[in-house]
Design brief:
The complex is a heterodimer of chains A (114) and B (184).
Chain A: H1 3-11, H2 21-31, H3 38-113
Chain B: H1 5-14, H2 21-40, H3 43-59, H4 67-89, H5 111-123, H6 127-138, H7 143-150, H8 154-183
Classes of the chains: A mainly alpha (114), B mainly alpha (184).
C-alpha cells in the first residue's frame, strides 16, 4: 500500500454515530413486530408440504388421465355404433329396393296374364 | 481468552437463544454509519440511513446465519441504500474532481487537514467509484470481496479503484503545488 493509500485509510477512518444511536435503534426496533422467524418456517413448511403436494398432483393427474381415457373410449364406441347403424341402414335400403323391384316385376306379369 | 462481542454474537445467533440484536448494533454501528457518512457527507441523513439499515436487519434477523453473514448483509444493504438515497433525492450534484470547488480556506496540507481534504475529494467522486473507495479504504475489503458483494467483476473493481486513486492523487498533487507556490 502506497503512502497516499495510507493517507486515504486515515482519512476514511470509521467514525461513531451521534450519541444515543443504539438506544434510538432499539426503541424503534421494539415498535416493530418481533423479529420474524416466518421465513425459515415458511421454507420448512414448503419442504414438508412438497412431497404431499407432489403425491396429490400425481393422484389428480392420474384421475384426470383416466377420465380422459374413458371419454376417448366412449367416443370410439360411439363412432363404431354410428358406423354400424350406417351399414345396417345401407343394407336395409338395398333390401327395400330389391323388394320394391321384385314387387314391380310380379305386378307386370299379372297384368300380362289378364 | 476473552470472547469478543462478535464471537459472542455468533454463538448466540447459532444457539438460537435470545437474539443479541443490541450487541450487533453496538458492534457495527460505526461501520454502517461511516459508510453512509463517507458516501453522503450528511450527518443527519447518514444517521437516518444507518438506523433504517439496522431496523431492516431486525426484520430479517431470523435469516442471519453468522456474524460474517451479518457483516456482509449490513455492508451490502448500506451500499444499496446509499446509492438509492443519492439517486432518489439527488442529494449531491455529481461533479468530477476537476469541477469540484477548492475549499474556501486555503488549508495547509497537513495530516488532519489533508484527511478532511481527502474526505471531500472522495465525496466528490462518481458514486460507484466513491463506494468502491470507501469499501476498499474504510472497510479494508479486498477487490474480490467487494466484487462479490456488489455483483461486479473483480477486474472492474480494481480498474475503478485505480482510476479513482489517479484522480485523487492528481488533485492532491495539484493542491500541494499550489500551496508551495503560494508559500514561495
Amino acid at each position: 500500500m502506497s503512502e497516499f493509500e495510507r493517507q486515504l485509510v486515515r482519512a476514511l477512518e470509521r467514525r461513531e454515530p451521534p450519541a444515543g444511536f443504539t438506544s434510538r435503534v432499539l426503541a424503534a426496533a421494539s415498535q416493530q413486530p418481533a423479529p420474524s422467524r416466518g421465513q425459515s418456517w415458511r421454507w420448512a413448511f414448503v419442504l414438508r408440504a412438497a412431497p404431499v403436494m407432489a403425491a396429490l398432483l400425481v393422484v389428480a393427474g392420474g384421475a384426470l388421465y383416466q377420465n380422459y381415457e374413458r371419454i376417448e373410449r366412449g367416443e370410439a364406441a360411439k363412432q363404431q355404433l354410428l358406423l354400424a347403424v350406417k351399414i345396417a341402414g345401407a343394407k336395409l335400403y338395398d333390401a327395400q329396393q330389391r323388394v320394391v323391384s321384385i314387387g314391380a316385376i310380379r305386378g307386370a306379369g299379372t297384368e300380362e296374364e289378364q | 481468552m476473552a470472547i469478543s462481542a462478535t464471537q459472542k454474537g455468533i454463538a448466540e445467533v447459532r444457539s438460537d437463544a435470545a437474539p443479541p440484536f443490541a450487541d450487533v448494533v453496538e458492534i457495527h454501528k460505526s461501520m454502517v454509519f461511516s459508510i453512509a457518512w463517507h458516501f453522503l457527507r450528511d450527518r443527519a441523513l447518514s444517521e437516518e440511513l444507518a438506523q433504517d439499515v439496522f431496523l431492516e436487519l431486525h426484520r430479517h434477523w431470523a435469516a442471519m446465519k453468522s456474524s460474517e453473514h451479518i457483516v456482509f448483509w449490513l455492508r451490502k444493504v448500506t451500499c444499496n441504500r446509499c446509492i438509492d438515497v443519492v439517486r432518489r433525492r439527488k442529494l449531491r450534484r455529481e461533479t468530477s474532481l476537476e469541477e469540484s470547488p477548492e475549499p474556501a480556506m486555503l488549508e495547509r496540507v497537513q495530516d488532519p487537514l489533508l484527511s478532511a481534504y481527502l474526505q471531500r475529494m472522495v465525496a466528490s467522486l462518481p458514486e460507484k467509484q466513491r463506494l468502491l473507495v470507501v469499501l476498499r479504504y474504510q472497510e479494508g475489503m479486498e477487490p474480490e470481496e467487494i466484487a462479490r458483494m456488489l455483483n461486479m467483476n473483480a477486474s472492474t473493481v480494481k480498474t475503478q479503484i485505480s482510476r479513482a486513486l489517479e484522480l485523487l492523487r492528481a488533485k492532491t498533487a495539484q493542491r500541494l503545488k499550489t500551496q508551495r507556490e503560494a508559500e514561495a
